[in-house]
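Predict the 3D structure for this chain.
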Amino acid sequence: MRFILHFLTFALVSNLAIAQITLSSSHLDFGKKQTTTMDSLPLTITNSGVSDYSFTNILIVPRFAYFRQDSQFSIHQVSKYITIKSGQSITMNVRFKPLQNIRYKTQLLFVSDKVPGCFAVTLSGEGRYAETYYDSTFDKYDEDLKTALKTLLAKGYINLGYNGARDAMYASIDNIGGQVECVYTGRKATFNTRSGATSNNFNCEHTFPQGFFGQSEPMRADIHHLFSTDETANNKRDNDQFGYVSSPTWSVGGSKWANSVFEPRNEQKGATARAMLYFVLRYQDYTNFLAPQEVLLRNWHKQYPPNTRDITRNTAIFNVQKNRNPLVDHPEMEERISSFTSNKVKSSVSNPELVTKVIDFGKLTANDSAEYTNILLEKGNLQSLIDLSGYSKPWFNLKLSATSISGGEASTLSIKVRGSKLPTNFISDSLDIKIGSQVFKFIYKASIGAATKLTQSKLTGIYLTNPIQHNLHFSEDLSIDTELSILDAFGRLMFFTEINSQLNDIEIPMLKTGCYFVVLKHNNQLNHLKIFITP
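Done. Predicted structure below.
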């Protein structure tokens, strides 16, 4: 059996698909996931074009509002630079591990400065705490979160009274193996009653001094800010502010005092900070006592996170007074409150970005067109309008997927250049792209070249030499570093090879009857023949 070839010869138009990149999804939504647990979803990138394609960077867009919201997403076992060979696919696993009980949304970018350009995949998910106790705080910030917490901490609260609170502390909450330890000095004594505390020179420390709220209930008896202490250490602390003491006039067990400033030992710094911040959330900042210490206390809260003892104590307190300290259960919640002592709303942050600033379309003929996709981002939490007005060139077409983007969203900008419209002396031009209040300059380059045609005499035939082998025969040797591809009528790659030595016979697989394109690429010049294979 022999194949008869009918040739139609013409120059290749660039949008015949040098590289055809597709992603299996434009949006990976992880849904509701419990915080600190990890989930993953697959994402496949396929190159169905005739040339290899490289991404120069793969990244998850950093979003900064209160904290980095992109850090809960990650890509497993993928480098920042990948090449996808013609006709092949790469599958990666995108991971989501939420830390906060909030909504997460950002973009996964695949960046290239070559046609067809960049791709964006939206990543979204919701973090949910395992405990239903904190459901009312979901996706709340600042005053909304503070209000939700104030309501939650008061709900079902049982006021034991000051005597009842101390009885619970000395008998069980602060009693470990029959002993009670001073949180400031580390001194231990064996007792389990108020009278036993007195006889051992122990008493009860109000971390937020009770004199500032007139010893009123329920503040006086709220165990979340009460601690068992040595009488001398408690008296030394008095109603003084917390801080660092470099030259102490009193120092025991790591705690220090001088000039009306008290520094707890390191073992207590975190617990002291969380007790103070809890008190202001639950009640208020009486006499503005906490305000000048807020920065320091927040630093201690982060530097000395809750330990096993803090967590056990929080649950023990809940068992008797029916509320919890949220900063012990979820220390990260502190990041969502701009100020514990003043009214602040969620900050409005605009942080737009244009992913690629310069693109070179290379040499185009009058028959060519090239299309590049750029990505416009909003990394803050505002909605930004996109403005492309005032730019109009006959060789340049623009198309936006969206004219506005909110925090964590992206818009694609399709940029198409037609060689037939380019001036003969064209080198480069620029486009101003306004996203929100910021203007980004996008520079694109191109040049006009003569169309190189593949003549009929160059390609003399395909023939079957035996039932296994077919050869594509050229009357002249092909140049070294030429890429040869065969595509079917639907643009699907049927065959690809790189020619690394001068030859004029290429072995190819058996092809079914139909229409095909033979594509030659050399020195970024593309040419093709349309062939019909008949029985």
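The helical segments are 142-154, 161-173, 194-199, 231-237, 266-282, 294-303, 308-321, 326-329.
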